[in-house]
Design goal:
- The chain is an alpha+beta fold.
- The longest helix has 23 residues, at about 165-185.
- About 30% of the residues lie in helices and about 25% in strands.
- The protein folds into three domains: about 1-160, no CATH class; about 170-445, P-loop containing nucleotide triphosphate hydrolases (Rossmann fold, 3-Layer(aba) Sandwich); about 445-560, no CATH class.
- The protein contains 14 helices and 32 strands.
- The strands form ten sheets. Strands 1, 2, 3, 4, 6 and 7 form a six-stranded antiparallel sheet that branches.
Length: about 550
């Protein structure tokens, strides 16, 4: 560190590119500092550095990272306290551009596998830093104040002063969440919502819990289950069974709020979120209509057939999918990648995809209507291929005929009304005719032509993430706004790197390509997919297989081999 100080003092006042000389490794009194990447300009992306500490210095216990879910939770905890420490320290000395910015990829409400902290034989804290400048001149003394004093002190006050009781509580919660997740299939459930959960959020743009006036969740007695937790504990709540479940009720009574909580239950949540004990089948996929999306040779024939012009819907393609064709494609693509639960809200669905009532059937003959509505396929999905559905419905009573379970939300209080729904269906029998045959239909795997993964623009590779919803891939822009279970911009950055990893490899089935990426991550960690792993890619978070497949499927130039 003395060598680093001497270098910085000598270059004080020189041109900004002089900072390149400090790239390398420096030994501190309780840490090693690795400056992996030095920004070329005060306005460029910040420099990247790692602080490596021994497990003994941190005081780690072997049990804290004994399983995968515990290691992820431990890394999450450390990233959280470092992020909070940065927020509290106000370390920026000011200057030009990003001067003095100190950043760690801090977690939000969800607990995701990240590259911000790595716990193995040692503990690595991966930070970004805007090296200080006045204009485009080096501020060497201020740089050393950050690198040699303030950042080490930050790590001393956070990582070296772990609140062991808080760590244990964070890991215990992870153990309990894992126990609930493991119990779902054993008990024939697709989701669990604990009694006392707080489901409403502060607003439509905030992921934090509503604190004033929120009604704690309480399971209806008929759906209440008890799940055993570690250390002799147990927890009670509502179990949503496999099959077809309807969530009904009046407007603004909490239907979509419940579905949104179940949708996010594919991830663990931090204590105090209100949904920390809302746990969902990990492969669950939120399905919606997505007007204008690209569709590439998807077999949507279970839902749509006999299009005008003799369009072959077993290999259906469109650069501008309609509401119904996009929703059909979204379902088939989810099944292709192994989803066992579909989550659907009629508010974001195509009406003609969801239902065709008796009057419309009488007016428009079936041989003139290519769409088989979802109401006629939802039970076949479960019976034929074991895929359950949770569906918010407020306007179509025909779904009562195909429901296994009906939950009514009444001022945010859930009630099980399956028997009452059956009685209504018997009292007012539907006169519509079931369409689409007696089986769900074929599922056709697709083989991707990897030469179609062209990431070049003007002869140079161009792949980057723009916030949560956009990936720039060569001359294309992938819009992920309708992929609703993507919750963190760091996941989108990881998706961009996953696509980069696939460029230039041989043709393969789409599911094989997804497997290839996730096998690489399992073997080498999330950073193994990044070409910048020697510069510590500390700002990635792991998406699911479903989100990776969704990104591939939205490539407008994706080539599929027949």
């Amino acid at each position: 560190m003395q060598q680093l100080r001497s270098k910085l003092e000598r270059m004080d006042g020189r041109g900004y590119k002089a900072y390149k000389e400090i790239q390398g490794e420096y030994l501190g009194n309780f840490f090693s500092l690795y400056i992996d990447y030095v920004q070329p300009d005060p306005f460029a992306n910040p420099s990247r550095l790692r602080l490596e500490l021994s497990s003994e210095a941190v005081g780690l216990e072997e049990a804290w990272s004994s399983t995968h879910h515990r290691r992820v939770a431990l890394e999450d905890y450390i990233a959280r306290i470092v992020a909070q420490g940065i927020h509290n320290a106000h370390m920026s000395p000011g200057g030009t551009g990003k001067s003095g910015l100190v950043y760690i990829d801090g977690p939000g409400q969800e607990i995701l596998e990240r590259t911000a902290v790595r716990v193995a034989e040692t503990v690595e804290i991966r930070l970004s830093l805007g090296l200080p400048a006045r204009g485009r001149r080096v501020l060497g003394r201020q740089a050393y104040e950050l690198l040699g004093q303030k950042i080490p002190e930050l790590i001393r006050r956070t990582v070296l002063a772990l609140d062991r009781q808080a760590v244990e509580a964070h890991l215990t919660l992870a153990d309990e969440q894992q126990a609930i997740r493991s119990a779902l299939s054993e008990q024939g459930l697709v989701a669990f919502v604990a009694n006392g959960a707080i489901l409403p959020r502060q607003s439509g743009v905030s992921n934090r819990p509503l604190t004033n006036g929120a009604i704690p969740f309480q399971s209806p007695p008929s759906l209440e289950v008890e799940i055993s937790l570690p250390r002799g504990k147990s927890i009670k709540g509502m179990g949503i069974p496999q099959g077809v479940t309807l969530i009904v009720g009046g407007g603004y009574h909490g239907k979509s709020t419940l579905l949104k909580a179940v949708e996010r239950g594919v991830y663990n949540h931090v204590a105090g979120d209100g949904r920390e004990y809302v746990i969902t089948e990990p492969s669950a996929m939120k399905i919606r209509a997505e007007d204008g999306r690209s569709i590439k040779k998807v077999n949507i024939s279970p839902f749509i057939n006999r299009l005008p012009g003799k369009v072959d819907t077993t290999v259906f393609s469109s650069q501008d999918g309609s509401g119904s064709t996009s929703q059909a494609a979204n379902i088939i693509e989810a099944l292709e990648v192994g989803s066992k639960l579909l989550l659907i809200d009629e508010d974001t669905s195509a009406t003609n995809f969801m239902i065709r009532d008796a009057r419309m059937q009488a007016l428009v003959a079936k041989d003139k209507e290519p769409i088989t509505p979802f109401v006629d396929k939802v039970q076949q999905l479960y019976r034929d291929i074991g895929v359950s559905t949770v569906l918010v419905v407020g306007g179509s009573g025909d779904y009562l005929d195909v429901a296994d379970t009906v939950i009514m939300m009444d001022e945010y209080h859930p009630r099980e009304v399956t028997e009452a729904a059956l009685a209504v269906a018997q009292r007012f029998p539907s006169v519509r005719t079931a369409e689409g045959g007696g089986r769900f239909g074929p599922l056709t795997p697709r083989r991707v032509l990897r030469s179609s993964l062209d990431s070049t623009r003007r002869g140079r590779e161009k792949i980057s993430a723009k916030g949560l919803d956009i990936i720039v891939f060569g001359r294309q822009s992938i819009n992920l706004a309708a992929v609703e279970q993507l919750v963190d911009a760091s996941q989108t950055r990881a998706l961009a790197e996953m696509l980069r990893f696939l460029v230039g490899r041989g043709d393969a089935q789409l599911t094989e390509m997804v497997d290839e990426v996730f096998n690489r991550i399992e073997q080498g960690g999330l950073e193994a997919i990044s070409p910048y792993r020697n510069q510590h890619p500390g700002d990635l978070a792991l998406p699911r297989r479903q989100e990776m497949a969704a990104a591939l499927n939205r490539l407008r130039n994706l080539g599929i081999v027949n």
